[in-house]
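Hi L.,

You mentioned the student needs an example of a multi-chain input paired with its predicted structure. This one should do, with 549 residues in total across all chains.
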Amino acid sequence: MSSTPAYGSALPLPTTERRRLKWPKPSWGWASLPALLIVWCIAASQVPIYVLPQPWDVVAEGYRWIASGELFPQLGASLLREAGGFGAATAVALVLGLGAALSSGFRDFIAPLNSLFVSIPPIAWAPLSMIFFGIGYVSITVVIFISATFPMAMTIQEGALSIPAGQLRAARTLGASRAQLILHVYLPASLPFITTALRVGFSQAWRALVAAEMIGASQGIGWMVATGGQTGNTAEVLLGIALIGSIAWLMESLVFRRIERRYASWRGQ
Amino acid sequence: MENAGHPPSATLKVSALSFAYPGGAEVFDRLSFAAKPGEFVALVGPSGCGKTTLLNLLSGFLAPDTGSVSIGGADAAPENPALGYVFQTPNLFPWLSVLENIRFGLRMAGGLSVARQREQARHYLALVGMAETADLMPHHLSGGMKQRVALARTLALEPGLLLMDEPFAALDAFSRLQMNDELLRIWSATGPTIVFITHDIDEAIFLADRIVILGLPPDGIAGEVNVDLPRPRERIATRGDRRFSEYRSELTRRIGEIANQSGRNKKPIIHSGVQTDVTV
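Structure written out for the whole complex:
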């Protein structure tokens, strides 16, 4: 045991050290939102308020919605639909994606369906869904479900197929049964891809949700934007757009990116 | 080592094994050979002789067309608990720590309590000289260290037969010498039967009791050499032994003769489009 190599040799991370010596590269990412606001202010000062209100008018509109207790039911309705459609899509996509990775027959069967559903804009299903289920929670959730399931299933399938064959062979020689292979190798090895799929699926679902709410709903953020447009209340429209953007951004950067980063260290292996 | 209770080593028996890839020429025609319990057998041969195919048959990843492979009396199957397999690449699970990688097989088998599994995993991690790395993740380790962990992961299940497929081929020359020493030390402490595939003649002589030379398909075994060098073997002394260089000359000559036939009437097999390294 005296001949074991020095462990330290593999541990230091030379790349981070080199990076520390370099002058930090300035990033201009912080400036884009202020720049947009400035352009907005200038543009708004040139036109009447009912065409384009100033940012602070939109903030005031938001305050009015909160004060009247009207905002949170709209937000709640949208988030509830998103949760239902996205949740169901996640469960089905896991089954479809892992199933397609494990069985080449099922993969061949599902491939045309995947490309068909991915190529149809989800909002095209909205009128049909509303005829089937009426205007309300179910019809919008179904549209979200259709929009998110297939991109997620494809991402999960690709991920599970990219698991190195050697790891699967190793697991089998270590005595893993087929069920254990799925639970203890396929699933953990797919986690980085599953989180990517969740991120993709959430944003797909969110877009579909807003679009569907604009077509047929009696509440929700999409409905807010649509009624604002119909009544000529541009501040309400912009408030809705700001809410849609911030929620998508919050989920993307605070939830999904963080989970993805956890797997970054071993993802390339 | 205090290993009075280490598991019995298994007999490997290959009987009249024939195999052809679908639509391809015959790779093996009624191949037979055996390894005694506790024996260290090295398999060598020129490129395309079917070494990897043979390992796939021995481990049950491929099924023979006719004939049989038995390990400790049971049919060959990847899941056979008597079988341990060390691959060319470590194939560690990157989402598990070093210790959890080694515990993987014990966890699949169940039976032992988690504490006992950890204890056994630590024992084998220490055996390969890596005790300090238990809590590291595989991507923190160098290639040689990963291969040690892979070896410990296989040994933790205490297999009676260890198949090793050019396990040190990807390592640099010095790490390889070091791993050869370590492997002999570990083998003498745990005692499984070993079938070791290599294209490195020196490595085969240094490690094995017996070297089996594979001919080109479908010839099967072209010859055997019993390595009559004293154990324990020493890195310098053993390689400096006069008989060591005699074995080397003999093996080089015999494998060279086989390789030369390939231009005339025999075709080497190419599996999955990847040719293994050129021998000799």
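You could point out the following to them. Chain A touches chain B through 30 residues (CB under 8 Å). The first helix of chain A runs from residue 14 to 21.

Best wishes,
N.
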